[in-house]
Amino acid sequence: MASSALRPAFAYTVVYVKDVAKSVDFYANAFGYHVRRLDDSHRWGELESGQTTIAFTPVQQHETDDRTGQVRTPKSGDERPSMEVCFAYADIDAAYKRAVENGATAISPPEDKEWAQRVGYVRDIDGNVVRMGSYVAKQTK
């Protein structure tokens, strides 16, 4: 077993976006998060999201492009990024409604799934898929 010094805490999910300030504002309004930080250059923004942080940075990130490669964005609505952001809510139907009313594009409304979760999907203002679901009870053995 790895020592606790080598066991990481999940710290950030970074979402690459066209306009950091607009995305921070959108996520705060559509999904109910509080803004932790938006730097003066508008090249980095963060939302309070519990033990982890949702961060935003521009798609064209010259600090890392030449080290890690350019960010690939979907070319059409038929494509999606290789990841999605997932949020859990106590009232998924109300949360989904708020997201759509605040600019999220509806993909599929919440529906009950066989794994005992209610799930709906939207796209954010950059076309990223956001999965919105109810909490799932922990399984006991």
UniProtKB/TrEMBL annotation:
Q: Name one Pfam family in it.
A: Glyoxalase
Chain segments carrying region Disordered: 60-80
CDD domains in the record: VOC_like
**Compositional bias annotation for Basic and acidic residues:** 62-80
Domain (VOC): residue spans on this chain? 9-135
Question: What InterPro entries does the entry give?
Answer: Glyas_Bleomycin-R_OHBP_Dase, Glyas_Fos-R_dOase_dom, GlyoxalaseI/FosfomycinResist, VOC_core
Q: Please indicate which superkingdom the organism of origin belongs to.
A: Eukaryota
This chain belongs to the protein called VOC domain-containing protein
Which species?
Linum trigynum
